[in-house]
Amino acid sequence: MARTVRGARILITGAASGMGRLYAERAVLEGAKSVILWDVDKASLDEVATVLRQVAEKGTAVYTYAVDLAELGAIAQAAHRVRRHAGDPDIIINNAGIVRGALFWEHDNGDDTRKIMQVNALAPMYVTREFLPGMIADAYRAKRIVNIASAAGLLSNPRMSVYAASKWAMIGWSDSLRLELQREDHSNVKVTTIAPSYIDTGMFEGARGPLLTPIMKPDYVVDRVWDAMLAGRPMLMLPKSVGLAKALKGILPTRAWDAIAGPVFGVYSSMDDFVGRR
């Protein structure tokens, strides 16, 4: 793939705020053929689209679709409209996600557990499944699938049990999909799994970055994700200390890792003061 997304069609979920909005802005500034924005918040989505259309180069189309990813049937309906109006995307950024910082038994099975799993784990699969056949069929054009997971999908953490479960599922599916495409010689489609620690967007307001793992600035993360996507890199862990922690957890006995992750690195207390986006 080229060093920019110029001329590409890009679909971004969770595009009305936070990182999703920043990915959309980056795509517009680089001259994408079209940006296809999905979000449950229609008012914010329309506001973002208005701003993007003002700064977009001539020829960059902005499409908006109000989609509740917790309603899995809505994904197929929205995908049909995308194919009809904008065409199959060249790049999918599965960015949408929700979190509730709570003990497992404080989650409500209907409002919390099911919705978190549907939005964070199942929706990216459904979205990708809708468009993947078209991406595979267009074998002479580079395609990208970017799945925004979390360091919580690599490292267990109190007060994140359901969120962590959803991101573990996403990472397992995402990297397995990468291998399947590679094995079946669909080399035009590259899958990149992103596993960041806390980002300063408000989604994890109140969370504390563990030792050697500062809360990251959004622009820094966008730059790194963009580079990894264009290069077709299999996985990106941010910051580097996430990879170090993953390696230590894999080497050390569980109790030894607990003794380091908790009192030393502060991983297990990082969500104690979580309040989230207000």
Automatic annotation (TrEMBL):
<dbReference type="InterPro" id="IPR020904">
    <property type="entry name" value="Sc_DH/Rdtase_CS"/>
</dbReference>
<protein>
    <submittedName>
        <fullName>SDR family oxidoreductase</fullName>
    </submittedName>
</protein>
<dbReference type="Pfam" id="PF00106">
    <property type="entry name" value="adh_short"/>
</dbReference>
<dbReference type="GO" id="GO:0016616">
    <property type="term" value="F:oxidoreductase activity, acting on the CH-OH group of donors, NAD or NADP as acceptor"/>
</dbReference>
<dbReference type="InterPro" id="IPR036291">
    <property type="entry name" value="NAD(P)-bd_dom_sf"/>
</dbReference>
<dbReference type="InterPro" id="IPR002347">
    <property type="entry name" value="SDR_fam"/>
</dbReference>
<keyword id="KW-0560">Oxidoreductase</keyword>
<comment type="similarity">
    <text>Belongs to the short-chain dehydrogenases/reductases (SDR) family.</text>
</comment>
